[in-house]
Amino acid sequence: DIRGLGDRLAAQLVKSGLVKKFSDLYSLRSETLMNLERMGEKSAEKLLGAIERSKSRPLRFLLTALGIREVGSGVAADLASHFSSIDDIASADADELAGVPGVGPVIARSVEAFFAEEHNRHMIDELKSLGVRTENSTASARADGPLKGKTFVFTGELTRMSRSAAQELVTSLGAKAVGSVSKKTSFAVVGDAPGGKADKARAAGVPLLSEEEFFTMIESLTQNSAGGINRA
Description:
The protein has 232 residues and is an alpha/beta fold. It contains 13 helices and 4 strands. The radius of gyration is 22 Å and the shape is elongated.
C-alpha cells in the first residue's frame, strides 16, 4: 500500500529486474528508476519518498504485505494487536497463534509454516536492516510489563470479566494469552465449567489458578496503578 506504486509500475520494476524480492523495494535509487517508462526525476523522487515513509507504517500493514496464505488485513490487525513484534509472531507455535482472537487453527498453521521457511526469515532480516518497522507501537510497553515472558491459558467462564477481556489484560501486562496448553504455558486460569485444558495442564504440571487467585496475582502487580482493574 505505497502511494504511487500501482500494478503497472510494480510489473515494470519486476520485468526490469530492479525488484526481484520484496525487500528490493527499499534499495531502489532515483537514477535507476528514471530508466523506466514514464518515470522522470520528479516522479522517481516522489516514489522514493513514499517508499521511505512506508518503513514506519504500523506492523499490520507489513504483515498484510508479506502475502502469508490466509492472512488478510483483518487477521494481520489481530496478530499485530496481540504480539509485540514480527519476531514474536515468528517464534510462536501454532497453538499460541490459534489462541489469538480471530485466528483459528488453519490460519495458525499457515503463519507457522510461513515463518518456518528460511528464505522468509531471511527476508524479514533484510527488511529490518533496511529500516522497515517490524515492531508494534506498544512493543516497548509490553516488553517491559510485569508479566513479561509468561504465557496464560484460560479455560471455563470467568465471572469478574469476560475471558477475552482477561486475555487482553495479561497481554497488556507483557504476557501472551494462548488457546491451548503446551510446554511453554506458565499458568492455566480455571473458571467455571472448565474444559479439557484444565486436565491437560494438570497432567503437564502447569500451575492452575482459580479465578480468585488469578485476580489476586494481577492486583498485586497493578496495585500501584491508578484506577486498579476494570472488572466490568
